[in-house]
UniProtKB/TrEMBL annotation:
GO terms for molecular function: ATP binding; ATP hydrolysis activity. This is Peptide/nickel transport system ATP-binding protein. Pfam families: ABC_tran (PF00005), oligo_HPY (PF08352). Gene3D superfamilies: P-loop containing nucleotide triphosphate hydrolases (3.40.50.300). Its main location: membrane.
């Protein structure tokens, strides 16, 4: 069941050249235990040629959001409300045949684990070629030439030979490169990267990130980069969206959000990160507690059960009222601007130096 709604609780961000526009997105899953509110009123924009980073703990709704953009949920167990517009085309109400035409062609995804995303029964070359032939009508030879070209572009050695290899014959880094090649076969306008470097060692991770930036420069794709690693996102993203319990709690340019964060959850994420130039014996400050159950999320601010600063808010605002997220640079928090500034300067900024 799909309905389109707009609410004042999740105002639309502003963007001059939005290629992808998500408005008040809600995604619910029916389970034996009840309804899971996986995404709960999410709005954001992505511009052409820009990268939006989405960060948050596991279960915050990052991957669900992007699978919803691609239309990859089971319609029998999933309810989607809101609006997703890609280059003028509404996706929430689109027919499956229209989504199939767009997937791999206008939008593509690099999955976190290429070993499970790639079929073990077909060669890497075949898995690159067949979608290209389907979307473009190219011949088998044209598709093979294109696949070899893309394997070479992503740094696979001897691409003509490796075209006929199976995924298990590739190393982890090469499989990830093959996944990137597959995603870029049809020059998609939107590329979604779901923690594409999580399972890779640091050297290969750096190579993959550099590759994505180079390919974005060449193809002009918009990128959504999902990760839990703020260090990675600092070097990849133009803009940043911080998610918690299916909601956006802070957004802005990456420089603004990481340089002067305004939400207690973002403060917690940054304070729990080790610094390369810090004292090796320095004690990290983890966020207390655990993320809430999305079967029964807390009332008011979803972060209030774990927030160290809720006592500074008058009355029961944190427990009773959901803080709004204003358009543009904003944080969904009941603390006043003066309180945020004082806490940041006194307690957070010294840890980030």
């Amino acid at each position: 069941m799909t309905t389109l709604t707009k609410t004042e609780d999740s105002p639309a961000p502003t963007g001059p050249e939005s290629f992808l526009s998500v408005r008040d997105l809600k995604v619910r899953f029916s389970t034996e235990d009840g309804i899971v509110k996986a995404v709960d009123g999410l709005s954001f924009d992505v511009e052409r040629g820009k990268t939006l980073g989405i960060v948050g703990e596991s279960g915050s709704g990052k991957s669900v959001t992007n699978l919803t953009i691609l239309g990859l949920h089971n319609p029998r167990t999933t309810t989607i409300e809101g609006e997703i517009v890609l280059d003028g085309q509404e996706l929430v109400t689109a027919a499956e045949k229209d989504l199939e035409r767009l997937r791999g062609n206008k939008m593509a995804m690099i999955f976190q684990d290429p070993l499970t995303a790639l079929s073990p029964y077909y060669t890497v070359g075949r898995q690159l070629s067949e979608p290209f032939m389907k979307h473009t009508g190219a011949s088998k030879k044209e598709a093979r030439d294109r696949a070899v070209q893309m394997l070479e572009k992503v740094g696979i050695p001897q691409p003509k030979t490796r075209f006929d290899d199976y995924p298990h014959q590739f190393s982890g880094g090469m499989r990830q490169r093959a996944m990137i090649a597959m995603a870029l076969m049809c020059d998609p306008d939107l590329l979604i990267a779901d923690e594409p470097t999580t399972a890779l060692d640091v050297t290969v991770q750096a190579q993959i990130l550099d590759l994505l930036k180079d390919l974005q420069q060449e193809f002009g794709s918009a990128i959504i980069f999902i990760t839990h690693d703020l260090g990675v996102i600092a070097n990849m993203a133009d803009d940043l969206l911080v998610m918690y319990a299916g909601r956006a709690v802070e957004r802005g340019s990456t420089k603004e959000v990481l340089g002067r964060p305004s939400h207690p959850y973002t403060w917690g994420l940054l304070s729990s990160m080790p610094r390369l130039d810090g004292d090796i014996n320095e004690e990290l400050t983890p966020i207390p507690g655990s993320p809430p159950s999305l079967l029964n999320p807390p009332t008011g601010c979803p972060f209030h059960p774990r927030c160290a600063y809720k006592d500074q808010v008058a009355g029961t605002l944190c427990t009773d009222s959901r803080p709004p997220l204003a358009p543009g640079r904003a944080a969904a928090c009941h603390l006043t601007a003066e309180q945020k500034q004082t806490i940041f300067i006194d307690k957070i900024q010294p840890r980030l130096r």
